[in-house]
Amino acid sequence: MRIVLLGPPGAGKGTQAERIVQKFNVVHLSTGDMLRAAVREQTETGKKAKDIMAQGGLVPDDLVVAAVEERISQADAAHGFVLDGFPRTIFQAEAFDAYLSERALDLDHVIELRVDEDKLLDRVEARAHQAKKLGKPVRADDNRDALKIRLDAYYQETAPLIDYYRSRHTLRSIDGLQPIDAVTNDIFKTLNV
Ligand code: ADP
């Protein structure tokens, strides 16, 4: 099963992706997590991405596309994957479609988590607060200024993917303001389980 989760920062993509992974034994591919790991490990990609990410901007398409394709070509992804945070631009979506069609593969589901913009700041601040309380590192971009830039990037660059996928694949929109379990239920219904 090959799934893409779409939605603004703070929509709950990571949480729901984990639940899909547990149920279907697919690989969770979060480009945010991959890039944060690259920053920690100070790889070439990490060095290029670090400041852009901290400010809330988008990392250049070619770096992200290469990282995703490399990861997806590994054996454990053959059974399927759930992509969280990718694609984020029309360029990435087109590059990824080309990659899949060269391998005679297709996406099975594209799921949009819908959350009102005015709820997102609360969610992101709550996540930063929770991390602090648990003694975990707070993401460099979980603050008001970076979130504003992340939201602008989402509405300008990523939201057009909703129409892109609506016209090419079965795109389903789910109310991401519901409690976590209710969102999961709706996703599983969409996946026909
Ligand atoms: P969120 O969805 O909460 O903003 P992510 O963890 O998905 O968080 O991404 C964090 C940051 O990583 C983004 O703001 C961006 O800088 C970078 N990033 C992640 N995925 C992509 C992508 N597909 N293209 C470009 N940049 C990305």
Structure, explained:
There is one protein chain. The chain is α/β, with parallel strands linked by helices and 193 residues long. Helices cover 58% and strands 12% of the residues. It contains 9 helices and 5 strands, in the order βαβαααβαβαααβα. It has helices spanning 13-24, 31-40, 44-55, 61-72, 90-102, 117-133, 144-158, 160-168, 180-190, and strands at residues 2-6, 27-30, 81-84, 109-114, 171-175. A 5-stranded parallel sheet has the order 2-3-1-4-5, with helices on both faces. α1 crosses α9. The longest helix is centred in the middle third of the chain and has 17 residues, at 117-133. It is globular and about 45 Å long. The two termini are 12 Å apart. 31% of the residues are buried. The structure holds adenosine-5'-diphosphate. Adenosine-5'-diphosphate binds next to α2 and α3.
What are the main properties of this structure?
58% helix; binds adenosine-5'-diphosphate; five-stranded parallel β-sheet; 193 residues; alpha/beta
Précis, in short:
With 193 residues, this protein is α/β, with parallel strands linked by helices.
Topology:
Blueprint: E1 2-6, H1 13-24, E2 27-30, H2 31-40, H3 44-55, H4 61-72, E3 81-84, H5 90-102, E4 109-114, H6 117-133, H7 144-158, H8 160-168, E5 171-175, H9 180-190
Parallel strand pairs: 1-3, 1-4, 2-3, 4-5
Bound molecules: adenosine-5'-diphosphate (ADP).
